[in-house]
Amino acid sequence: MRRKYFFLGCLIALFMSCKENPSQPVQLTPYERWHSFHLHNYTIDQVRMCFCPGAGGTVRVTIRSDTIALVMRLFDTTYVPSPIPQYYLTVDSLFSIIRTRPGDSIVVTYNETYGYPEKLDINPQQHPVDGGVLFETSNLQILFNWDGNDKS
Prior knowledge:
This protein is of the alpha+beta class. Helices cover about 20% and strands about 30% of the residues. It has 3 helices and 6 strands. Strands 3-2-1-6-5-4 form a 6-stranded antiparallel β-sheet, with helices on one face.
C-alpha cells in the first residue's frame, strides 16, 4: 500500500514539475516575434540613408509572398520602375543583414508590437563617409488575401 502512495506521489511531483509557470511570460526575440505573426503580404515605409546613389526619401514598399512587388516614392507617389534589391528591403532581408554581418558594427531598434527592425544602422561610425547605411522602417500595414487571412 505504501508503494502505491509513493508511486502516486512521484507521478504527481513529476507532473507538477513539468508544468509551465504561468507567472513568467515567455520572452520572444524580435525575430521570433516577427515570425510568430506569419506575415508574408504587407507594406512598410522605408528610408535608406547613406552616401550612395538612390538614397534618401521615404518609399512605400509592397511585399507579396515575401517578395518586393512595388516600390512607391511617397513624396510624389510615383512608382520605382525596376527596384534595385539592395536599395529596398523586406523585413526578412533586414533580419538577414543582422544575422550575417558579424564584422560590421550594427545598431538596431525593434518595433515593440511586431518585432521588425525599425532602425538598422550598419557601420554608424562611418556616416556620412562611404561604408555606412541606415535603414529606417515604419508604418507596417498588413495586406490580407481575398479570403481575409494573411497566414499564407
